[in-house]
Structures are given as C-alpha cells and as structure tokens.
Amino acid sequence: PKTGSVKDEL
Amino acid sequence: MNVFRLAGDMTHLLSIVVLLLKIRTTKSCAGISLKTQELYVLVFLTRYLDLFTRYFSVYNVLMKLIFIGTSVAIFWYMRYHKVVKQTYSKDLDSFRHYHLILGCFLMALLIPFDFSVTEVLWTFSIYLEAVAILPQLVLLQKSRNIDNLTGNYVFLLGAYRALYLLNWIYRFFTEIHKIRWIPWISGLVQTALYADFFYYYIQSWRKHEELKLPA
To answer: Primary place of residence (chain B) (predicted)?
Structure first.
C-alpha cells in the first residue's frame, strides 16, 4: 500500500 | 523499532513529563507558550485520526493516546486552572499562530501525502509540528530569565526530532529504502529551528550560567 510502514511513527 | 526511534519517542515523552512536572509542582506556566501548546493539540488530533482505522501495536496506540491526553491536559491547565492560568505570560506570547495554521493547511492542500481527507490532515500535522515551536521560541527570547524546567523542556523537544532524523537515516538503509520527502524535509526544518536554542542551551550548561537568549 502507498502508506506502508511510514505511518507507524509518532 | 530501532534505538534512535525509541530514544526519540522517550525524549518526546520526557519533555512532556518535565512540562507537566513544572506546571503541577510549581503551579506555574510562566515562560510556556499557550499558542505552541494549542498547536500541539491540533497536531496530535489531526495526525492520530488513524487510531480508528489502523492498528500497528499496543505501544503505538498507547503513545498516541498519551500524546493526545497530555497535550489536552497541558492546554487545560494553562487556560482554565484557577491558579496556573494567572501565571501565563500572555503579553509575551504574541506570535500570530493562526497564520501558521492557515499556511500549513494550504501547504497540505497543495502538497499532501495523498489526496484524501485523512492524508491531507496527516500532512498538515507534519507541517504544523515543524513550526509549532516558533511561538515558544519567541516567548523565550522575550523572557528575561528562563527557568531550568522550561529550558530542559524545549531542549528535550528539539532533541526528539533530531533523534528522529537519525531514525529516518537508519530506516532508509535497513528497511524502507524509499525517499520520504514530507517527513524528512519537515523534520529537518523542525530541527533546524532549534539550532540557535541548542547553542545557547549548551553554552549556559557548560558555563553553569542561567539560560538567556539574545534579543
């Protein structure tokens, strides 16, 4: 997916 | 999760603990910008909308809830607490933070991570966080003396984003291998805004003098 693992950050 | 990321999160958390400690023990928020705190409430509320849509880990959910909860608590103390609100340095906290909100929102519409409501708001929160410290820095510059807790609070807040930069470099080579313009550039800007402060903070620490920023 476009968002990937980027969004696991705070 | 790598050591830079964890250190960054812990530094961020610690900065909030320091600020709450100052407010609760001294019953004072002198030297703290309510405008910066308002911006942080907005940053966390707009970024963590994915609490409802995406699950990563217990750690992730807990930290998001803590950041939202503590930022609202700090805002509440400064705005409504009978004793604390009287110590607010209102006249010095003169930065027009609505301009930052408007500017970041327009930027997020022009250059969003993705074209959807939640992604535009996520991008907005990244842009806004980068500049949210500005009212606080301006207030510090106008303050005659900066107490230790306030100085440490701002230092930890800056250190947090600097550690995230290391985390991004580390993740780029070990895991993601993708350029992430929006967080990287915003994070660089955010860290750079602290450069001046870091310089005077370290100087005062080395000389064992009170922290003061030149006007």
So the answer is: endoplasmic reticulum
